[in-house]
From TrEMBL:
One of its GO terms (molecular function) is ATP binding. Its EC number is 6.3.5.7. Allows the formation of correctly charged Gln-tRNA(Gln) through the transamidation of misacylated Glu-tRNA(Gln) in organisms which lack glutaminyl-tRNA synthetase. The reaction takes place in the presence of glutamine and ATP through an activated gamma-phospho-Glu-tRNA(Gln). Pfam families: Amidase (PF01425). Residues 1-439 form the Amidase domain. GO terms for cellular component: glutamyl-tRNA(Gln) amidotransferase complex. This is Glutamyl-tRNA(Gln) amidotransferase subunit A. Belongs to the amidase family. GatA subfamily. InterPro entries: Amidase, Amidase_dom, AS_sf, GatA. The active site is at K52, S127, S151. GO terms for biological process: translation. It catalyses: L-glutamyl-tRNA(Gln) + L-glutamine + ATP + H2O = L-glutaminyl-tRNA(Gln) + L-glutamate + ADP + phosphate + H(+).
Length: 447
């Protein structure tokens, strides 16, 4: 069924970098045998899944939508993918993304942009745009995405699907190609909250191969699928409804809050503070970590190597010049600059201090509230091409999602309406660390 739908729509939406029908059918047949033998009984057994192309899949091309990895076949699979396969998931392919997950529109991909299934003239969001469009277009029943600054929640909001960014440390980052290691988390993208909770339960695990992995006893997320918000305290940050927020998004998100109130939640506005500092702090920290993480792409160990060079240094230079796209180069330059001697204190250390203050602001908020509710993004999906022309404007679009990564908190985006162009709007629910269950329960009740 998935491949029949892919046949119909993939040429228009371009959700995938790699599709492997033969491998998928083979794996489905093997899973079927295990189901018949009673060895696989879980809800994900035999269900087709699409994986973002920054997660290693053994033997299957893993490009990060970059030319520099355009020939990379990993010898191992990421832990999150293995966790799904243990449950009998069937991988149908790898989804398109912004190059190395840097971007908000899936337009920085070496493989061309993905289109929003609701309107092909608009972007699907990013960087997990291919994962979200694959689910929205019915090509995959669910997908994995990664979220460093909003890359699961924002495209989920733009594509009208549900996406969760878990508490940092919940899902192993082993085998996820690193962008900003202190911020990156893998999470599910699916059609509804029930599917998302089920998938998250499957991929969450303690993993010694990821030094930031956390041992949790409470990853039975499906237990939170209860339609009940009576007494749930929901805080709405006033600072999330100011300048730059599209009035239609504002209206739909506040309406969602009203509906939760009608169902028994206590809803109240409050001042979160420091919201305007999240973007500068994030773009300093994320770029710094990216510049370091991307040092490994030198044309020696794996991936693309320039064909025409003169000596070792020239080989590095040409390989990286030819292999990386413009947005990735911008981040490497910015990151190298903020980490350089003389600027380290002024930019990188200062950003870390701002991050600590933002965390304190959220800690204070969670003393009073169970859940924080706001928009996932300030607008609905922009037209193709608009964001590439103005990267700073694109960065500003991350305002509601990135603080959640800086603080390691869990967040979920759930569809809450449409604008007058027929493009989906998402409401974001943010929880305290390890309190995915509260946001899942609230989202499930709302949905
Ligand atoms: N848009 C943000 C960035 O470009 C977030 C991307 C992400 O979460 N991977 O860095």
């Amino acid at each position: 069924a998935s491949f029949a739908q892919i046949e119909r729509v993939e040429k228009d939406v371009n959700s995938f970098v790699t599709l492997d029908k033969e491998a998928a059918l083979k794996s489905a047949a093997e899973v079927q045998k295990k189901i018949d033998a009673g060895e696989l009984t879980g809800p994900l057994a035999g269900v087709p899944v699409a994986i973002k192309d920054n997660m290693c899949t053994e033997g299957m091309l893993t490009t990060c939508s970059s030319k520099i990895l355009s020939n990379f076949h990993p010898t191992f699979s990421s832990e999150a993918v293995l966790n799904l396969q243990r449950e009998g998931a069937v991988i149908i392919g790898k989804t398109n993304m912004d190059e190395f997950a840097m971007g908000s529109t899936t337009e920085t991909s070496y493989y061309g942009p993905t289109k929003n299934p609701w309107n092909l003239n608009h972007v699907p969001g990013g960087s997990s745009g291919g994962s979200c469009s694959a689910v929205a277009a019915g090509e995959a029943f669910y997908a994995l995405g990664s979220d460093t600054g909003g890359s699961i929640r924002q495209p989920s909001s733009f594509c009208g699907v549900v996406g969760i960014k878990p508490t940092y440390g919940t899902v192993s980052r082993y085998g996820l190609v690193a962008y900003g290691s202190s911020l990156d988390q893998i999470g599910p993208v699916a059609k509804d909250v029930t599917d998302c909770a089920t998938i998250l339960e499957a991929i969450a695990s303690y993993d010694r191969k990821d030094s930031t992995s956390i041992k949790r006893e409470d990853t039975n997320f499906t237990e939170a699928l209860k339609a009940d918000v009576k007494g749930m305290k929901i805080g709405i940050p006033r600072d999330y409804f100011g300048e730059g927020l599209d009035p239609q998004v504002k209206e739909a998100v506040l309406k969602a809050a009203q509906e939760l109130k009608a169902q028994g939640a206590e809803v109240e506005e409050f001042d979160l503070s420091l919201v305007e500092y999240a973007i500068p702090a994030y773009y300093v920290i994320a770029a710094a970590e990216a510049s370091s993480n991307l040092e490994r792409f030198d044309g020696v160990k794996y991936g693309y190597r320039s064909q025409d060079y003169d000596g070792l240094h020239n080989m590095y230079k040409k390989t990286r010049s030819e292999g990386f796209g413009a947005e990735v180069k911008r981040r490497i330059m910015l990151g190298s600059f903020v980490l350089s001697s003389g600027y380290y204190d002024a930019y990188y250390l200062k950003a870390l201090r701002v991050k600590a203050l933002i965390k304190q602001a959220f800690d204070r908020a969670f003393e009073k509230y169970d859940v924080i509710l706001g928009p996932a993004a300030p607008t609905t999906a922009p037209k193709l091409g608009e964001s590439l022309a103005d990267p700073i404007k694109m960065y500003l679009g991350d305002i509601y999602t990135i603080a959640v990564n800086l603080t390691g908190l869990p967040g979920i985006s759930v569809p809450c309406g449409m604008d007058d162009k027929g493009l989906p709007i998402g409401v974001q629910l943010i929880g305290n660390r390890f309190e995915e269950k509260k946001i899942i329960q609230t989202a499930f009740t709302y949905e």
